[in-house]
Automatic annotation (TrEMBL), chain A:
Entry protein name: DUF3341 domain-containing protein
Keywords: Membrane, Transmembrane, Transmembrane helix
InterPro entries (alphabetical): ActD
One Pfam family from the record: ActD
Keyword Transmembrane: yes
Spans traversing the lipid bilayer: 57-77, 97-120
Automatic annotation (TrEMBL), chain B:
Subcellular location: Cell membrane
Pfam families: NrfD (PF03916)
Chief location category: membrane
Keyword presence, Transcription: no
Highest taxon of source: Bacteria
InterPro entries: NrfD-like
Organism the protein comes from: Algoriphagus aestuariicola
Coiled-coil ranges per UniProt: none
Transmembrane segments: 37-60, 80-101, 113-133, 160-182, 221-240, 260-279, 300-322, 342-360, 367-393, 413-433
Lineage, top ranks: Bacteria, Pseudomonadati, Bacteroidota, Cytophagia, Cytophagales
UniProt topology in membrane: Multi-pass membrane protein
Protein name per Swiss-Prot or TrEMBL: Polysulfide reductase NrfD
Family: Belongs to the NrfD family.
Record keywords: Cell membrane, Membrane, Transmembrane, Transmembrane helix
Length: 176, 454
């Protein structure tokens, strides 16, 4: 970050209060930077207006790649590169190629999807995440509001909206 | 939003709050290891070291160190391999299949069960690798690598090769699934820690911050991985059973093997999960998370899968008679009444008869009875594989080559080595990793705990 960023944090105890609060805050026109929770809160992505994740599509595409690679490899090796009769079977014994094709499909789909997940979520061992509140991985839900993104609304007004939406604490947080 | 049922028992007892969950699980990671842990760890490391002598002897001298002979070419090695792989299956069943079925009780046991899967698969992999005799050349025999022996490739028609792909895929996918689940919990430990621990768990947590967007993707990844792992786990033991079923050996050459092996795998796996979880909950005081309700549900899975296995044993016998093939009929009569009758009847007693005791609610909700029966099931399932493998081989087509199998010290030692390896890894896991998936338990807490649900 080249410039300082200032946030207002609303701290919530309860997931249901949080869901209503997100709706309420967004209803007033205040833009939410992000909500940090210790566990997945169902429905939170809907009230925040996030689009459905496209990771399943990535998994499908990587899976298709796995099937294609596995079948190509087996047909090339067994039928074309070094054909041999094994157990009286056809060189291209298609049913025998199914198990390996299935396994490689699963392997590539899983690894491909997880790799995409790691990249888009910026997950890596040396990542230095911005932690708004240490309790957000323990028992609190933390709603972060970027002041710079909400210049139309007064800071005090945002704090009041947060308090009235059920936040147990309203704090300031700045990153250099 | 969840509705609390007045009929259903809560999943987590003791009126835990979210912070209690964090504290109850994290404190074992944060505390200095106590003397009991050291004793347990050193014992298993000792078994590992002693067993290593047998592994070293096997690699140095070759598999002539084992009790195999020209009639019984497969014995303890493949028995132990199938046994360990089977044990691993419960972890994936709990974490993937029960996730797809929305069984929320899985949340407090899936972490440890999946760790068990990974360690069991490592142990299983030891046997085929050692059986190669020259494991350092194994990559050429097991993987389609370009080589200088001509461009002769591995044989994709062989179920043994399918097994290589199945087991390695299973191991890698389980490891990834397990690790994805660990990331948020490592972040929790990171945020409670200072100094070196913060650095280590910070790296392990991959910079997880719990953002709603990350959780959305995390849920998506978990669901897809569960969807992939479910057919995967079924395929793995199916392919393991193909090692036998695609042969023409009487006693092996049966189409019933894939479902029968999968049921047996789940059966033995749940027994091992129970053995480990009963100890873990006691040592770590996690009785509020792994409740009698969990134990009872797992025991119900054991009755079901045990009964499926029982029906499979009887079906095999019936089909051997019905087929009219004399060699097939003899293989089964010989199993039950031949020189290995004691192994057959140990298997029958341990797998089919004794688990039926779980029909009594008193027994399936008793911790002592469950613990003892879980050990019995594991012994029974070892005998099942031994019976299938050795009794089908030891009296082959030519009576002059009929033989018995006697394990040598190296057979016993290699098996001990895998036990040492399994428990060493499990104790390390139990000390340094959160044994319960905190984030997932928190996500089911509200619907199931009095205190949080006002």
């Amino acid at each position: 970050m080249e410039k300082d960023t200032h946030f207002i944090l609303g701290v919530y105890d309860d997931e249901d209060v949080l869901l209503h609060a997100v709706e309420k805050v967004r209803g007033t026109g205040v833009k939410i930077h992000e909500v940090y929770s210790p566990y997945p809160v169902h429905g939170l992505e809907h009230v925040l207006g996030y689009k459905r994740s496209r990771l399943p599509i990535a998994a499908f595409l990587f899976g298709m790649l796995g099937t294609t690679l596995a079948l190509t490899m087996q047909f090339y090796m067994m039928r074309f590169d070094w054909p041999m009769i094994i157990g009286g079977k056809d060189y291209a014994a298609f049913p025998d190629f199914i198990p390996v094709s299935f396994e490689l499909t699963v392997l590539l789909a899983s690894f491909g999807m997880v790799a995409v997940f790691m990249i888009v979520s910026n997950l890596k061992p040396w990542a230095q995440p911005r932690i708004f509140d240490l309790r957000s991985t323990d028992d609190k839900h933390v709603m972060a509001i970027d002041i710079a993104n909400n210049s139309a609304v007064q800071v005090e007004e945002i704090k009041e909206i947060l308090r009235s939406s059920g936040a147990t604490e309203v704090n300031n947080k700045s990153f250099e | 939003m969840q509705v609390t049922s007045s009929v259903r028992e809560p999943l987590v007892t003791g009126g835990k709050s979210y912070h209690d969950v964090t504290h109850d699980v994290s404190r074992h990671v944060e505390a200095k290891p106590n003397i009991k842990w050291f004793l347990a760890f050193l014992t298993s490391a000792g078994v590992l070291a002693l067993g290593f002598i047998a592994v070293a002897a096997t690699v140095w001298e070759g598999i002539g160190m084992w009790g195999l002979n020209k009639t019984v070419g497969w014995a303890w090695d493949i028995t132990n391999f199938v046994w360990w792989v089977g044990i691993g299956h419960a972890g994936t069943l709990i974490s993937a299949v029960l996730l797809l079925f929305r069984q929320k009780w899985r949340t407090s046991i899936n972490r440890a069960a999946e760790a068990m899967t990974i360690f069991a698969v490592i142990c299983a992999a030891m046997f085929p690798v050692l059986h190669m005799g020259r494991p350092w050349l194994g990559a050429y025999w097991a993987l389609p690598l370009p080589n200088t022996f001509g461009s002769l490739w591995v044989n994709f028609n062989s179920p043994l090769l399918w097994d290589v792909f199945a087991i390695s895929t299973y191991f890698s996918v389980s490891l990834v699934f397990w690790y994805i689940g660990l990331i948020p919990d490592f972040a929790t430990i990171r945020d409670r820690a200072t100094g070196l621990r913060k650095t280590i768990y910070g790296a392990l947590s991959f910079g997880w911050d719990g953002a709603a967007k990350s959780w959305m993707r995390y849920e998506s990844v978990s669901l897809i991985l569960a969807g992939l792992a479910t057919p995967l786990v079924l395929s793995v033991h199916t392919i393991v059973s193909f090692d036998f079923a695609t042969s023409v050996i009487p006693g092996w050459h049966t189409t019933i093997f894939p479902p029968y092996f999968v049921a047996g795998a789940i059966f033995s796996g749940f027994a091992m999960v129970l053995t480990l979880m009963i100890i873990t909950r006691k040592v770590y005081n996690l009785e509020d998370y792994i409740t009698i309700g969990h134990i009872e549900l797992m025991n119900i899975v054991i009755i079901i899968t045990g009964s499926i296995v029982g029906i499979a044993y009887i079906t095999e016998f019936f089909i051997a008679w019905y087929s009219g093939v004399e060699a097939e009929q003899y293989a089964f009569i010989n199993r039950a009444t031949g020189p290995y009758w004691w192994a057959y009847w140990s298997m029958m007693t341990c797998n089919v008869i004794s688990p039926q005791l779980f029909w009594f609610k008193k027994i399936r909700t008793s911790i002592v009875a469950t613990f003892l029966l879980s050990l019995v099931v594991n012994i029974g399932m070892w005998f099942e594989r031994f019976v299938i493998i050795v009794t089908s081989l030891h009296r082959d087509y030519l009576p002059s080559s009929w033989a018995m199998f006697y394990p040598t010290w190296a057979d016993v030692g290699v098996y001990m080595f895998t036990f040492g390896l399994f428990f060493t890894l499990f104790f390390l896991f139990a000390k340094f990793f959160p044994v319960i998936n905190m984030a997932e338990v928190k996500s089911v807490l509200k619907s199931s705990s009095e205190k949080v649900h006002k």
